[in-house]
Amino acid sequence: MSLSLYEAVVLPMQQTVGSVQGVLEKGAQHYEARGLNPDDLLGETIHSDMFPLTFQLHSVMHHSLGALESVRRGEAGPPNKLETLDYAGFQAKLAETAQTLAAMKADQVNEWTGKDVVFKLGEMSLPFTAEGFLFSFSKPNLYFHATTAYDILRMKAVPIGKRDYLGQMQLKR
Hints:
The protein is mainly alpha-helical. Helices cover 58% and strands 8% of the residues.
């Protein structure tokens, strides 16, 4: 069995973005049911030397749809500017991200196989192929930031578990 670039990258990204949407929804419900404001979660971190939930959510979007856009352009880097959003704003942006991922065409993504992608950070420049960039940089980052967002919500007593983190699996049809 061989997997196309689309199947190996876009489908897992859809699953991960969807799971983050689900845990955010449960976070909002949990906080609102207790008379708390979900916006209070946005500044939370697991540890003082880690970035807050806002950064984790920006990173989920950056390392999913943003990574695919970087491959299309042939150039990647850190996000230029992080938007200031409230909790509902992050939910809306993640919904947009999910919709755009769902609309991506397999043929278009598969055409990127072997394409050169350069990651630039200041004066540093790292050459990748599309597959190398997506498999060794973007997907691990996506999973890291999705897990960290999940962990922040779990740390704040949001009733989520492994099934929530897994999201919609790709079951045989």
